[in-house]
Design brief:
The protein has about 270 residues and is mainly alpha-helical. It has ten helices and four strands. The chain has one domain: Up-down Bundle (Glutathione S-transferase Yfyf (Class Pi), Chain A, domain 2), CATH 1.20.1050.
Length: about 270
């Protein structure tokens, strides 16, 4: 067989192979199955979803409304902040509460605010906490310098004036005209009146830091009641401030509750 005949034969064989349908010369394609769709599980028939746990209401622990100046401060701050809370009253025969009222306790733990998992005692700490959660209430001034001033005088009230506390205890049911002021309490009275006069003149009144009542007014509110109970002499500006504080609806509500208290503490009801 010549070379030309052999080449012609190879071409015929190749042509036959290309026409053979049994030979699949297409590229291999690998198919991937789509991932299964996740179905949302529906609650079984007859079963209800577990309800979310109830959020505990805020509480404020208080002692006597007639005698406890610290309780009054904390209560006023919570009301000024617009906080909706339940009162928890400590029984009048509670030993720790009596020690606090008689200034025999090493520290003051009433009032105590429980709110959203937080437990806060000490009126100054309560004020700072309420200002954090309710800044719109305006417990402290917006101005930085005024706010520093407010913190300073409130802190002074929180930690000072021990002679005033001892000689003029808060007693909202009592009234002692022409009460003789002990010599140790007089410097405390003069310093408080100095604070009031400066704040009223600087910020324009009728409250200590302007037109809006706030932390400082709550801190000094029990002192207002003491000055009225014991007939402490006041100038016109300080007298107007006392009248403003006593006219607040919150103070009127507290006074009514204090007068309704049946229990008296003999040590704080002595005749002067």
């Amino acid at each position: 067989m010549t070379d030309e005949e052999q080449l012609a034969r190879q071409r015929r064989c190749l042509a036959c192979a290309l026409r053979d349908p049994s030979l699949d010369r297409s590229p291999v394609m690998t198919s991937v199955a789509p991932p299964p769709r996740l179905r949302k599980s529906s609650p079984a028939v007859g079963k209800s979803r577990r309800p979310a746990p109830a959020i505990a209401r805020p509480t404020l622990t208080l002692s006597s409304k007639n005698y406890s100046s610290w309780s009054l401060r904390g209560w006023l701050m919570a009301r000024f902040a617009g906080l909706d809370f339940d009162e928890v009253m400590v029984p009048p025969d509670d030993a720790d509460a009596r020690k606090e009222l008689l200034l025999l306790a090493p520290s003051i733990r009433v009032p105590c605010l429980s709110h959203d998992g937080a437990k806060v005692w000490n009126t100054l700490a309560i004020a700072q906490y309420l200002n954090e959660i309710r800044p719109e209430a305006g417990l402290m001034p917006d101005d930085r310098i005024a706010r520093a001033h407010c913190r300073s005088v409130s802190g002074e009230m929180n930690s000072g004036f021990a002679n005033l506390r001892a000689s003029l205890p808060m007693n909202l049911k009592g009234h002692f005209p022409k009460h003789r002021i002990w010599g140790g309490a007089q410097p405390d009275i003069e310093r408080i009146l100095e604070i009031w006069t400066e704040c009223l003149a600087k910020y324009g009144g009728p409250f200590l830091f302007g037109k809006r009542r706030g932390m400082a007014d709550a801190m000094f509110a029990p002192v207002v009641t003491r000055f009225l109970t014991y007939d402490v002499p006041l100038d016109a500006a300080c007298r107007r401030y006392c009248d403003t504080v006593m006219a607040m609806p919150e103070m009127q509500e507290w006074l009514a509750a204090a007068r309704a208290e049946p229990d008296d503490i003999a040590e704080l009801d002595m005749e002067f």
